[in-house]
Amino acid sequence: MSRVVASKHELKRQRDALARYRRYLPTLRLKQQQLQVELRRVDRAVQEVSDEEARVRRELGEWIDLWAEGQALDAFLTIEEVRIGETSVAGVSVPTLEGVTYLRRPPPLEATPSWVDDALPVLERLVEARLRRRVLAEGRSRLADELRLTSQRVNLFENVKIPAAEEALRTIRIALGDLQAAEVVRAKIAKAKSMERERAV
């Protein structure tokens, strides 16, 4: 800790700083708790989307022999637009998947096998699950970064700033008390000398 100047101005500055730290700390703790809750929620959502993706992959496993026919499905289904929104969670901007728009072209009945009609909706579900998982992963990353910074701030306030301000206040109070006592002693000595001079006259 740097050397503290024992003055009334410094005493007020340290008092104000301590009050400010104590006022901000509960807000930081609340933000930390909100981020932790949101991270758990996002982890559950990622798990649900991963489970959905695994289910769709299993469904596609039933089609795997048919995919070997070399049918170009992108001629019938392409992603036209992916709409990504943003929401604020505890002051953190988190992306959300608003929706996916597909450009669908009906497969010609005589030129494509019949399974293509059934495969396209399954493929849509797989694409959407993957996109949702990616967006959730990005949001989780942002939340985790903010939680790390917030936790560092909470620790800084709890373990460094508040104890340092309390110690500075204690030191300043002792030093000011010593100065005041020394002034009283000097005043008494000066008064005693003054009285001696008056008696000598």
Layout: helices, strands, pairs:
Layout: H1 8-61, H2 64-67, E1 77-89, E2 92-104, H3 115-200
Antiparallel strand pairs: 1-2
Helix pairs in contact: 1-3
Structural class: alpha+beta
CATH architecture designation? Orthogonal Bundle
Biggest sheet layout? 2 strands, antiparallel
Put simply, the count of helices is 3
Approximate strand percentage: 5-15%
Strand element count: 2
CATH fold call = Helix Hairpins
List the uncertain runs: none
The radius of gyration is 35 Å
**Proportion of helical residues:** over 70%
Terminal residue distance: 54 Å
Order of helices and strands: HHEEH
Explain this structure to me?
By secondary structure, the chain is α+β, with helices and mostly antiparallel strands. The protein has one domain (8-194): Helix Hairpins (Orthogonal Bundle), CATH 1.10.287. Helix content is 72%, strand content 13%. The radius of gyration is 35 Å and the shape is rod-shaped. The mean pLDDT is 85.
Outline of the structure:
This protein has a single domain (8-194), classed as Helix Hairpins (Orthogonal Bundle), CATH 1.10.287.
Which terms would index this structure?
Helix Hairpins; alpha+beta; 201 residues; two-stranded antiparallel sheet; 72% helix
